[in-house]
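Hey, I was hoping to borrow your eyes for a little while. A protein chain has come my way and I'm curious about its shape. Take your time with it, there's no hurry, and the full record follows here:
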Amino acid sequence: MSAPVVAVRDLVVVRGGVEVLPGISLDVAPGVTGLLGPSGCGKTTLMRALVGAQRVRSGTVEVLGEPAGSAGLRTRVGYVTQAASVYDDLTVAENLAFFARVLGVDRASAEEAVAAVGLHDTREKVVGRLSGGQRSRVSLAVALLGSPDLLVLDEPTVGLDPVLRRDLWALFHRIADGGAAVLVSSHVMDEAERCDRLLLMREGRIIADGAPEEIRRSTGARDVEEAFLRLVEGPGDAA
């Protein structure tokens, strides 16, 4: 078998004196992997560790065979935070052109990224005047520059309408079909069915790992939300 895109081993992260991640291990392979769990369970901390933006107490995080955050990963990893991370005083096109220069990718890649997230008609608009959903898509377009091998998306569909959510999930799968690993976090359990694989997280630990149907079958649940409750509370309490 080929090496995983992401390999996390015994990762411990302490923030504000609290152990947020108590020593977890996991692999992420190509495809769409959903990281699901309630707010505050450690999803964002884990994602920050994967992109090298989080100080860790101990353990290792390797991405594409290199330590997370290595300079060689700059164009191979795309990261979208919960808050839009682009310049509000620039247009969509200007933002993409700026980040394309920083990353050393050509203008054609910037145009492709804008088209991929459905913002071609707003490319000349100032980002600060766009809706929250549109601003989030500008951040996603920036993350797509250079066709990264790993795309890390922290709650990318929060606050979006159902049609846009559907379209973005279709985009995530197209990216994965090209051979990339797409890691998407969410606290909305109904998005679980859109993933190839799920990592269910609670209190800094992975409590289930597998395809949605495998997790449903192993817990005897009708859906992933019920499966999560059964794993946390036990079959009798979740019924």
About this structure: Helices lie at 43-50, 92-103, 107-116, 132-144, 162-177, 212-219, 224-233, 235-238. The longest strand covers residues 18-28. The radius of gyration is 18 Å. The CA atoms of residues 169 and 202 lie 24 Å apart.
